[in-house]
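Justification of computing resources. Each target in the renewal requires a structure prediction run like the one illustrated here; the chain below, 287 residues long, is used simply to show the kind of job we budget for.
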Amino acid sequence: MMQKLRPYLFTIPANMALITLGSFVFAVGLKAIALPHGLISGGMSGLSLLLYYAFGWPEPGVWYLLLNVPIFILGWFFISRRFFFYSLYGTAVFSLVVDLVTFQFTIHEPILAAIAAGGIMGAGSGIILHSVGSAGGNDIIAVVLNQKYNVRMGTFFFGFNLVLFLFSFGVLDADLVLYSLILSYVTAQVLDHVLTIFNQRKLAMVISDHAEAIVEAIHKRLHRGATYLYGRGTYTRKPKRIVLTVLNNYELKRLEELVFKIDPEAFVIFERTFNVLGKGFSQRKIY
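Resulting structure tokens:
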């Protein structure tokens, strides 16, 4: 199914749909849960609010605009023109959908509100960043750091917000800052999970004296490729062929069954991978 959909995933309509949907989901978490409880939003909007509280001028919207100008310049020079214009679209759509969300979820406990808002906002950010654009602000910096230095986006967001909230203690109520820190942590964790949910696979290594039969079964039964790694047993000193293959979660049990059916004495190692790119798996995303 994913193989058939892959050619359409990076088209203009698909990217605009991801940005629009993600912006709406994020806005629901922000407007329907976070703001009614007085929780502080992180990122550039939170920094704009903090600067306004600290200096009393200009308005938070003006601060947000001033902070975004150098960030968009950064995106123009360090990523791509396509990313720049998609991010402009994302910023405009997010500004619009925030005003459209007028309902609220009734949650009485502030900590539950922080967790719920963080989960929804993290999911929204993850959907947006599955496109080749962003919603502006910190999203652009996160993409630059991820592309240049492989910094996880959720890690950057949480680190930025942690510093922001530490400075907020002198300006805002301590309880709200701490609840907002919980919101930020949940947002970062959910964001990273949503970003990697379609890329995570399982790496399997099989050590067996029946490597050829196992590889043949992998080809025919699982329709996956495999690679031989050549090693030597430390006790027997005999040469070994290690079968290396990458599978999705649903294929793990099938591999386990076919391996031990062929060789009950086989040694199998399963390892979770962070990201798998290549034929038959995820396509490399170029911003």
